[in-house]
Amino acid sequence: MKNAELKSRKDAATPRGVGVMCDFYAERAENAELWDVEGRRFIDFAAGIAVCNTGHRHPKILAAIRDQLDHFTHTAYQIVPYASYVELAEKLNARAPGDHPKKTAFFTTGAEAVENAIKIARAATGRPGVIAFTGGFHGRTLMGMALTGKVAPYKIGFGPFPSDVFHAPFPNPLHGVTTADSLKAIEFLFKADIDPKRVAAIIFEPVQGEGGFYPAPAEFVRALRKLCNEHGILLIADEVQTGFARTGKLFAMNHYDVVPDLMTVAKSLAGGMPLSGVIGRAEIMDAAAPGGLGGTYAGNPLAVAAAHAVLDIIDEEKLCERATLLGDRVKAKLVSLQSEVPQIADVRGPGGMVAVEFCKAGGSEPDAEFTKRVQTLALERGLLLLVCGVYSNVVRFLFPLTIQETVFDEAMAILESVIKDSVAVAA
Ligand SMILES: Cc1ncc(COP(=O)(O)O)c(C=O)c1O
Asked: Where is the signal peptide (predicted)?
């Protein structure tokens, strides 16, 4: 079947709210490459939105899923439990930041992990309030939307949202927001909107993902921890996009000398299978009453089997080191282009969580048009890139960390050519 035919059937059968970026349809994928139904090949720097850090169809993940298929595919963990769930919880408890006792509960999507982290924080503190940040993205469920700090397209037409959610500006020096500004805004929330004694949690992304790949400054994360300690507030790190070697460490929080009380994980946890989790201090995780957490598919055995394989692959193939090595190469390429491309306003990101921000030549006004051109040209030349940022002026690079050298070099050559050609069009 051809792409054009599928597109017209899609338009007739599925709602436009499920926005689709590409006009071609996947037929198969292998590591960092993907082929459409017409046989066209693409290099996949989207990795299913940060899900395939271990690449498409890693043989170890396939073997783990096949083995699980031969045993059982679903019992509902809350009805008939299985060892692999418990063992995965043990592994994550041991590897998440902090040497205190931890517990982990599994869910299916990132948004569900976020929802449950808030439920757990409220149950543990007996408080309703949550503070999140502008530019943050936490999912498309009602609480996920309420916490998300970006209106279009996520919140349009979907309110009212759960109450007692407040936003403070996320530090972003490039756009004139310092750490001091952010902290002052939180103090102001405590004066103007909510008594800190009514705040259950502060939730933040160690590196904002959808919001534009802005890393949280170390002094900001330290200050959040201090603020939480002072007021009995829980600190939640949303590691849904940053986790599992993407930033050059297993978790982005490993870059900070701060330990969160709760952490949400998903995406690359199970290398393409739907699985998420909340990892946290044991006594906090136990605050919810039995039956309060879970879900029919939560901790699906096929996804759990895949996650065990993912953790092994990260260790065996040294994917944290590889994330940093490859991320540094993307950054070096972009920095080398900076003298010829005045639109490159910033190149940033830890490990392999790299982004380039485009602004109007030489200034600080976001250039969404230039960014779109880079993305479109790249797609035409067979490289799948994702755009992010509140102003849609950031290209993020989410290559599988297992990508072959030759494929990576090919992608770098395409990237260079499309950025240079976009300047020529802009001139
Ligand atoms: C930081 C963060 N939190 C939560 C989510 C929501 O995850 P999901 O789309 O699996 O519900 C995302 C998705 O992009 C995310 O990046």
From this structure: none
- Give residue 260 CA to ligand 1 midpoint distance, Å: 18
Closest ligand 1 atom to Cα of 242: 1
Going by pLDDT thresholds of 50, 70 and 90, the confidence category of residue 251 is very high
Strand 262-265 to strand 199-204: parallel, antiparallel, or no bridges (unpaired)? Answer: unpaired
Q: ∠92-93-96 over CA atoms, to 5°?
A: 75
Question: In angstroms, rounded to a whole number, what is the distance separating the alpha carbons of residues 162 and 146?
Answer: 6
Q: How far is the CA of 310 from the centre of ligand 1 (A)?
A: 19
Residue with CA at minimum distance from ligand 1 atom 13? 139
Find the mean pLDDT for residues 395-404: 98
Is residue 64 situated within a structural domain? no
Residue 31, domain extent: 3-57+318-426
Its pTM stands at 0.98
- For the residues 124-147, what does the mean pLDDT come to? 98
Nearest-atom number in ligand 1 for the CA of 276 is 10
- Which tokens belong to 423? 């300047």
Domain boundary among 260, 281, 316: 316
Instruction: Work out the mean pLDDT of the chain and round it to a whole number.
Output: 97
State the CATH number of the domain containing residue 201: 3.40.640.10
